TrEMBL record:
Family statement: Belongs to the major facilitator superfamily. Bcr/CmlA family.
An annotated GO cellular component: plasma membrane
Species this chain originates from: uncultured Thiotrichaceae bacterium
Keywords: Cell inner membrane, Cell membrane, Membrane, Transmembrane, Transmembrane helix, Transport
Main location: membrane
NCBIfam families in the record: efflux_Bcr_CflA
Keyword match Signal: no
Residue ranges occupied by any Major facilitator superfamily (MFS) profile domain in the UniProt entry: 11-398
MF (Gene Ontology): xenobiotic transmembrane transporter activity
Alphabetized InterPro entries for the sequence: Efflux_drug-R_Bcr/CmlA (IPR004812), MFS (IPR011701), MFS_dom (IPR020846), MFS_trans_sf (IPR036259)
Gene Ontology BP terms: xenobiotic detoxification by transmembrane export across the plasma membrane
Transmembrane segments: 7-28, 48-66, 78-95, 107-124, 136-154, 166-184, 216-234, 254-274, 286-304, 310-330, 342-366, 372-393
Designated name of the protein: Bcr/CflA family efflux transporter
Compartmental location: Cell inner membrane; Cell membrane
C-alpha cells in the first residue's frame, strides 16, 4: 500500500519550507549585500544586485531540467538532486574570494532551488486541482512568507557575531535538515503507471502542446511581467531602505513589515478564492497595484521625488498585498489545464516566467538612482500591460473550455 501524504498542516509546512529555500537564500543576504560588495571590491555599487538576479537565472534553467525529469523518475529523486546542488552552491559562495565564484555559487543555489520550487507545485497538483489547489498553495504561501519576514533578522543577527560567509553556512545546514525531513515524511506522489519515459522528442511534443495553449502562455507571460516588477523590488529595496532612507540595522524590521503585507494577502486569498474565484481576484489585484503606482507617481511629480518614509511604506505594503493575491492564483490559473503534464507544466511555467522577469527586474534595479522612481514606474508600466493581457487570457481560456 502506498504511503499516505502527511497531514494537512505538516504538508503545508513541509511544502512551504522546501519552497522557501530560494527565498531564504535571497532575503537573508539583503543585510549583508553592502558588506559583500566592499569585501569583493565591486566597481559599481549596483553590481551587487547580481547576487539576487543570478540566483533567479539559475532557478529558471533548473526548472527546465527537474520538472520534465520528474515526470519520468518521480518527484523524490529530482528533489534530492536539487537539494544537493543547492548545498554545493552554498559552499562555493561561502568560500568565494572573488565576485565570479560568488555568482557561480549563487547560480548553483538558484539551479538547485528550482527543484523544490517546481516540484512542490507538481506534488500538490498530483493530488489537487482548481480552487482546492489554489487554497493549499495560498496556505503554503502564508507559511512560506514567514521566511522572508524572519530571514533578514537571521542575516543581521549572524552579522553581529560573524561575517557574511556564516550566512551561507546556515543555508547549508538548513537545506540538509529539509532534505532529511522530506526523505522520511513525504511519499512519492507520482505513481509508476503515471510516469512517462523521458525522451527529447516526447518532451518537445509536450512542450509544444503546453505553449500552444494560449491561456497558459498568456497567464505565464503575465506572471513573468508582474514578477519582474517584484524582482526589481527585491533587487533595490536594500539600497532604498538602508542607504536612501538611512535605516541601516533597522532594515530587517521594515522589510518584515513589507513581507507581512504579502503573507496577510495569502491568508485572505485562501478564504476569498473559494467565494470569488481566481480570475476575479487577479483582475482586482492587478488594478490595485496599477492604480496605486499611478497615484504615487503623480504625488511624486507634484510634491517631491523623495517621498517621506511612512508614505513609501504605505504604498509598498498595499502593493505587496496585491502581489500576495496574485502569486498563488496566477500559477494555479496557468497550471489548471495541464493535468498529467504537471511536472513539465510547472517547470515550463516557472522557467518562462522567470526568464521574462529576470531582465525586467535587473533593468529596474540597474536604473536605481537614489530615488524610488524606477521601482514605482516599473510596477505601473508592468501592471498596466498585465491588466490588458488578462482580458486576452480570460477570453482564450473561455474559448479553450468551449472547444474542449
Amino acid at each position: 500500500m502506498a504511503k499516505k501524504l502527511p497531514g494537512f498542516v505538516e504538508l503545508v509546512i513541509l511544502i512551504a519550507m522546501l519552497s522557501s529555500l530560494a527565498a531564504l537564500a535571497i532575503d537573508a543576504m539583503l543585510p549583508a549585500m553592502s558588506q559583500i560588495g566592499q569585501d569583493l571590491q565591486l566597481a559599481h555599487e549596483n553590481d551587487v544586485q547580481l547576487i539576487i538576479t543570478v540566483l533567479f537565472l539559475g532557478m529558471a534553467l533548473g526548472q527546465l531540467v527537474f520538472g520534465p525529469l520528474s515526470d519520468s523518475t518521480g518527484r523524490k529523486p529530482m528533489m534530492y538532486l536539487g537539494l544537493v546542488v543547492f548545498m554545493i552552491g552554498s559552499v562555493l559562495s561561502m568560500v568565494a574570494e572573488d565576485f565570479f565564484l560568488m555568482l557561480l555559487g549563487r547560480f548553483l543555489q538558484g539551479f538547485g532551488s528550482a527543484a523544490p520550487r517546481s516540484l512542490t507545485t507538481a506534488i500538490v497538483r498530483d493530488h489537487y486541482a482548481g480552487r482546492q489547489m489554489a487554497r493549499i498553495m495560498s496556505f503554503t504561501f502564508a507559511v512560506f512568507i514567514l521566511v522572508p519576514m524572519l530571514a533578514p533578522f537571521m542575516g543581521q543577527g549572524i552579522l553581529q557575531i560573524a561575517d557574511w560567509r556564516a550566512i551561507f553556512g546556515t543555508f547549508l545546514i538548513l537545506s540538509a535538515i529539509v532534505y532529511i525531513w522530506f526523505m522520511f515524511r513525504m511519499p512519492e506522489t507520482l505513481s509508476e503507471e503515471h510516469r512517462r519515459p523521458f525522451s527529447f522528442s516526447h518532451t518537445w511534443n509536450d512542450l509544444r502542446d503546453i505553449i500552444s495553449m494560449r491561456s497558459v502562455a498568456l497567464y505565464t507571460l503575465i506572471t513573468g511581467l508582474l514578477f519582474g516588477a517584484f524582482l526589481g523590488y527585491l533587487s533595490s529595496i536594500q539600497q532604498i531602505l538602508q542607504l536612501q532612507y538611512g535605516l541601516a540595522e533597522r532594515f530587517p524590521f521594515y522589510f518584515a513589515l513589507l513581507a507581512f503585507g504579502i503573507g496577510f494577502a495569502a491568508v485572505v486569498n485562501a478564504k476569498l478564492v473559494l467565494r470569488f474565484g481566481m480570475h476575479w481576484l487577479c483582475h482586482q489585484a492587478i488594478r490595485l497595484l496599477t492604480v496605486l503606482a499611478a497615484f504615487f507617481l503623480l504625488g511624486m511629480f507634484l510634491n517631491a521625488e523623495h517621498p517621506p518614509l511612512w508614505m513609501f511604506m504605505c504604498y509598498l505594503v498595499c502593493t505587496l498585498f496585491g502581489m500576495g493575491i496574485l502569486f498563488g492564483n496566477l500559477n494555479a490559473l496557468a497550471m489548471e489545464p495541464l493535468g498529467k503534464m504537471a511536472g513539465l507544466g510547472a517547470s515550463v511555467i516557472g522557467a518562462i516566467s522567470t526568464f521574462i522577469s529576470v531582465p525586467l527586474g535587473a533593468l529596474i534595479g540597474y536604473f536605481y538612482n537614489g530615488t524610488v522612481l524606477p521601482l514605482v514606474l516599473g510596477f505601473f508600466v508592468l501592471g498596466l500591460i498585465s491588466l490588458v493581457l488578462m482580458r486576452f487570457a480570460d477570453a482564450a481560456r473561455r474559448n479553450e473550455t468551449i472547444s474542449g
